[in-house]
Amino acid sequence: MGNIAHEKRVVSYMISLYCRKNHQSTSGVLCENCMELKLYAFERLSKCVFAENKPSCRECKIHCYKPELRTQIRTVMRYSGPKMIIYFPIDFIRHLIKSTYPFCAS
User: Fold this and answer.
1) SS3 state at 104
2) Which of 15, 80, 85, 98 holds its CA 20 to 30 A away from the CA of 21?
3) Does position 19 have pLDDT exceeding 90, yes or no?
């Protein structure tokens, strides 16, 4: 799985976890706001100028999110990030390794 596909999966997990716990969504169905955020994040990832060599968004010099959506995704990541180890441990560890050691691809 490439970097972009992995990033999309992790963002999807984070948004679904956030929505489930904060907006009481059920059966894996996202609320309208979270669905819009997810689609926007996927669009931004698909159009990333760095493609498969993209750094983590936090370390990127180009901020491609609109300011209000950037604030929203930060909120989601702050909430979901620490909980990823419980709900999605393999993806959490992989993401942690890639963030710490960017030269370790896939």
Assistant:
1) coil
2) 98
3) yes
Does 42 have pLDDT greater than 90? Answer: yes
Q: Tokens at residue 63, please?
A: 């901020």
Task: Look up residue 9 and give its amino acid.
Answer: R
List the structure tokens of 5: 């596909």
Banded model confidence at residue 103, pLDDT cuts 50, 70, 90:
low
- DSSP code, position 81: G
The pair of three-digit structure tokens given for residue 3, joined into one six-digit string: 């970097």
Question: According to the model, what pLDDT value does residue 1 have?
Answer: 54
Q: At what angle do helices 3-22 and 32-46 cross, to 10 degrees?
A: 170
CA distance 48 to 50: 5
The Cα–Cα gap between 79 and 98 comes to 20
Outline where DSSP puts E strands in 1-106: none
| Residue 19 to residue 60: CA distance in whole angstroms | 26
- pTM here? 0.83
